[in-house]
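Backbone shapes recur. Consider a single case.
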Amino acid sequence: MNLKKTTSETKTDANGTTSNSIFSSSSSTSEKATKTWNILVLINTFLLLAGGAFLMYQMQNDFAQFRTERLSSTWGFIFFAIASSLFVYKAGFFIYQLYLYFRYKPVESVTDDELPTVTVIVPAYNEGKQVWATLKSLAKSDYPKEKIQLLAIDDGSKDDTWYWMQEAKKQLGEQVAIYQQPENKGKRHALYRGFNIGTGEVFVTVDSDSVVNADTLRNLVSPFITNEDCGAVAGNIRVLNNAKALLPRMLDVSFVLSFEFVRSAESRLKSVLCTPGALAAYRRDAVLSCLPEWINQTFMGKPSDIGEDRAMTNMILKQGYHVLFQRNAYAYTNVPEKYKGLYKMFIRWGRSNVRENIAMAKYVFTDFREGSKAGSRLLFFSQASKLIMCYPFLLFMLYFILVHPVLFVTSTLASILVLSSFQAIFYANRYKFSESFWAYTYSILYTFSLFWITPYAIATASRSGWLTRELPQQG
């Protein structure tokens, strides 16, 4: 509604217009306040980073003395040697990732006649009206209608999710089939029901808080036609609610690096380690071959109720299939807007990472695939080294903070300024330059308030629970 139309309506209907004017004015004020707050956060981010870099320059002698002190002790020298070796390895690995990224190209969509039949499964729990938007976006897909089976499964929601599924059914008719679990049994069981009902040659899973582009499905499943060894495909995930709060803005920049850089490199090695629940596709035969193991998966004697996407990816890799990434298959998903929801999501991901790295260790050094397996092993080593070195580096960090807190803070801020620049440049090159600066803010947030996630996830890897499923849904 434009301003002139609102003014005209005010003259016609005083009561109705007053409400609209107040709403418009309130909305405008809120937007200005949000914009001002965003600018202040970014200004403070760069003041902090610039201050850290300046102090590091000023304290060069102190850093030199600290290094000398550490190298003079046996344990200090050992740690320095290990840290230097890991730095060289990480630098080399990063250069290799760059090489792989520049060689990566998504598979172009095949023709309608070539497209396989697909079963799209949307599990939902306490999603409310968002599931309706998800199903509508999928129904608008540029995909032959006779080749698509759309299933929505309510996992015993306690809110009005089932109502909105019914509303979607009324509007979409035969385009969608809806099912309701008798009780909440978890996302894995909802997907399991969909896998058993589905008739498609390819299964596609989409989270109920996500929406897709019209060409997403056809782009996502095309690799199964061009590569007969392809067992799974990861979609490209962006943030849907990035205009609502600071955290989603930061996460959108982080997601772009995680998917468009990291997974592009992994895809060149045919070994994407995780196909995201928000958007992923699986060859039917590959799923059915590991379905009993997947649904009955346990960790330390307890049923696995998290990490169903990473587990499925792992089991498909184990069968010798290729797992690829499609940069041109977009899904936009809601992410937590509050710190509590964010750290709980990361804990869940962290625990799943620990579990699946252990599972991957059992087969990655066997003859699990025809052809080269070096890429898969390199990716596994990169993941495993982060977990193995987690506690030693945590102890060193705590020691550094206790002995030289100022040196720690300044060196950390200077490192963030340097390392986050690649992420910012990468995002700016792909999308909006103005949004790329959130890479620096996110790095500060993660470094100083989320550093504990990995060590905590390792220590509590055996714990079950989704953690965020009972949180109130955002907007």
Q: What stands out?
A: The chain has one domain: 30-475. DSSP finds 18 helices and ten strands in the chain.
